[in-house]
Amino acid sequence: MATVDILRDNLIDKLLTISNKEYLLALNSLIDKSVENNATVELKEAQITMLQLSDKDIEMGRLISQEQLDKDDLAWLKGR
């Protein structure tokens, strides 16, 4: 049996011994949230285009450092 299967079986065995309703509700909530985080996100066409443009910028070396971006932001804010 694979390690994941063993771990799952061990967890099931332990869950069957728990009778505290609040504890089980908390575990259920935790599991539900982890399932939601693994859901596939459908991107809109505009989002896909923006990501493709970003990839092209990276390929062409059109990048700035975070430090330079911060300086540019501060200069822009001071100019307002």
Features:
80 residues, mainly alpha, 2 domains, 0% strand
Structural description of this entry:
By secondary structure, this protein is mainly α. The chain has 2 domains: 3-37; 45-78, no CATH class. 72% of the residues lie in helices and 0% in strands. The longest helix has 17 residues, at 21-37. It is elongated.
Reconstruct the topology from this structure:
Layout: H1 3-15, H2 21-37, H3 45-59, H4 66-78
Number of helices: 4
Shape: elongated
The number of strands is 0
Portion in helices = over 70%
Briefly, what is this?
The chain is an all-alpha fold. It has helices at residues 3-15, 21-37, 45-59, 66-78.
